[in-house]
């Protein structure tokens, strides 16, 4: 059986003393906060609100997990259905997370599922400045980039 791409909803689950569906309906961005409190015993409050003028973070698939990184270097499993990010380490408040559209997510995940080894499943948002992938070469006959002298 193939291992599905991991999302916050399937990674951050309630502790064994709670029903499996105890956190059903909790938005993906908030699940990590509940998990930190219940599993690690750390008191980490939800962010009060958005961080003004904060640049967005980009969701990506990293070793078969939807992931986002904070400016502090911490990272967490995220949900492509909740475009918010908050850091449980440095307490950076809610900022916008750039995610693929609802129509693109299943296509991306299906393409990744064709890679048999989950640890090799990687995907970067095309607009992410940290994307290590280079753009494809320009086909012959197509105009290339125009550089002003």
Task: Explain how this protein is built.
With 149 residues, the protein is of the alpha+beta class. Helix content is 18%, strand content 13%. The protein has 3 helices and 6 strands; from the N terminus they run H-H-E-E-E-E-E-E-H. Strands 1-6-5 form a 3-stranded mixed beta sheet, with no helix packed on it. Strands 2-3-4 form a 3-stranded antiparallel beta sheet, with no helix packed on it. Strand 2 and strand 3 form a beta hairpin. The chain starts with 7 loop residues before the first helix and ends in a 36-residue tail after the last helix. The mean pLDDT is 89.
Topology:
Layout lengths: L7 H4 L16 H13 L16 E2 L1 E3 L2 E5 L5 E3 L6 E2 L9 E4 L5 H10 L36
Parallel strand pairs: 1-6
Antiparallel strand pairs: 2-3, 3-4, 5-6
